[in-house]
Amino acid sequence: EVQLVESGGGLVQPGRSMKLSCAASGFTFSNYGMAWVRQAPTKGLEWVATISYDGSSTYYRDSVKGRFTISRDNAKSTLYLQMNSLRSEDTATYYCTRDYDGWGQGVMVTVSS
Amino acid sequence: DVVMTQTPPSLSVAIGQSVSISCKSSQSLVASDKNTYLNWLLQSPGRSPKRLIYQVSKLDSGVPDRFSGSGSEKDFTLKISRVEAEDLGVYYCLQGTHLPRTFGGGTKLELK
After folding, report:
1. Percent composition of chain B: helix, strand, coil (DSSP 3-state, to 5)
2. For the residues A64-81, what does the mean pLDDT come to?
């Protein structure tokens, strides 16, 4: 069974940084591309970033390009999202997903002074 | 970016009724490998999303066959036959052909 557990969220001031982690189990992590998807309060789903199975390719939505970095450690079966220069509009629940067929429980990130 | 337009935004249904949700894309979703990467997901209240259907019409493991997907190119439909209480929530279409990946705005399925 695919298990994805996010951590690292919380309250952060605008302009500061935060790093999310997603611990994967129940499948061979190094075989799958992974993604981060977010959902602002009362809003719909929004794709944030994708990374290939080996980490060689990464893709971002325009609004986070240059501020967010997706990465992975296949030896630790863990996905990361480094978020810098955070803005109020980044406030959302962040989900990690394995190719959209497995999802974590989500972690809340609130950007506010 | 590919715009995914989902209709209707909400549906009020009775248990046992059948419903359809439409999803139209602003560009063809046929990929260079000839596959069409159109997914349907359900987000039940307070829960994470769950994928129901991938590549237009393929059901994920454990998804009841009351769910079916159809369509091609830019026009797609999710049909739920004989709605059950566990089917309530927000349905999203998601295109996986083009970057950035884009979701429809969602269709909220509620009890009448």
Report:
1. 5, 50, 45
2. 98
- Report pLDDT digits (tens) over A77-105: 999 999 999 999 999 999 999 989 999 99
Amino acid at B4: M
pLDDT tier at A66, thresholds 50, 70, 90: very high
Q: How many CB pairs under 8 A join A and B?
A: 46
Bridge partners of A36, per DSSP, are A49, A96
Q: For tokens 């069974």, what's the residue? A: A1
Q: Where are the alpha helices (DSSP H) in B29-105?
A: none
- Which residue, among A2, A99, A100, A101, would best test binding to B if mutated, counting the most B CBs under 10 Å from its CB? A100
Token pair for B19: 């419903």
- What residue in A sits closest to B49 (Cα-Cα)? A103
- Predicted confidence (pLDDT) per residue in A8-37, tens digit: 999 999 999 999 999 999 999 999 999 999
Q: Pairing relation of β-strands A3-7 and A68-73? A: unpaired
pLDDT of B98 reads 97
Give A49-89 as a DSSP string.
EEE-TTSS-EEE-GGGTTTEEEEEETTTTEEEEEE-S--GG
Do residues B23 and B76 lie in contact, with contact meaning Cβ atoms separated by under 8 Å? yes
Contact of A40 with chain B, judged by CB distance below 8 Å, is answered with no
